[in-house]
Write a structure and sequence with these properties.
Layout lengths: L3 E9 L4 E2 L10 E6 L2 E7 L5 E2 L7 E3 L5 E3 L8 E8 L4 E11 L6 E7 L2 E7 L7 E6 L2 E5 L3 E5 L8 E8 L2 E8 L6
Parallel strand pairs: 1-9
Antiparallel strand pairs: 2-7, 3-4, 3-8, 4-5, 6-7, 8-9, 10-11, 11-14, 12-13, 12-15, 15-16
Main location: membrane
Protein name: LFA3 protein
Keywords: Glycoprotein, Membrane, Signal
């Protein structure tokens, strides 16, 4: 009996992407396909063979995982890993979504009710995780907006907004003195 498993995965244009394959047995034979076309294969200890646009921009590891170098929009699609562990065939499927690179987050600020309100925004195709860090405080704040009492702001205080998606992150920094009138 073959076990089929499907997972949505995300990569970013221009970056390297490795399919998250977790195999606990020794892999004897591996075949990767994209939309039913062969991408890479390996038998035993032989060198891997690569096909089509993947021959010079992919790496097949011994554990069966595949890395695509310099991801392109055209790499999006349904990928299937078929591997044999000397007992049975296994099948893993992945739907690879290729997204544009993360934008730099934009920070805006305004004052109301004796507090400085900071907002961090980034235009991206998927929901982002937002984190704030203040230069005088090791704690981070996991939200898109941050409010600071005006009396806590001094001339050297900086705030950094970090956006995250999957394994990627970008950040922007602002000196809080810029926000004061």
């Amino acid at each position: 009996i073959a076990h089929t498993y499907c997972e949505d995965v995300f990569g970013i244009v221009g970056e390297n992407f490795t399919f998250p394959v977790k195999v606990d047995q020794k892999v004897v034979e591996t075949i990767w396909k994209k939309n039913k076309d062969k991408v890479a294969e390996r038998e035993g200890l032989n060198k891997p063979t690569y096909f089509g646009p993947f021959w010079n921009r992919s790496v097949l590891m011994e554990d069966g995982s595949l890395t695509i170098l310099d991801l392109e929009k055209d790499d999006a699609g349904i990928y299937e890993l078929q591997y044999w562990d000397s007992l049975k065939d296994h099948y893993l499927s992945f739907v690879l979504n290729v997204l544009d690179s993360l934008p730099e987050p934009k920070i805006s600020c305004n004052i109301s009710n004796r507090k400085l309100a900071l907002n961090c925004a980034a235009d991206f195709q998927r929901p982002l995780n937002y984190t704030w860090k203040l230069s005088n405080n090791p704690q981070s704040h996991e939200k898109q907006e941050l409010s600071i009492p005006l009396e806590d702001i001094h001339t050297t205080l900086k705030a950094t907004c970090i956006i995250k998606f999957s394994q990627m992150e970008r950040s922007s920094e602002i000196s809080l003195i810029q926000c004061l009138p």
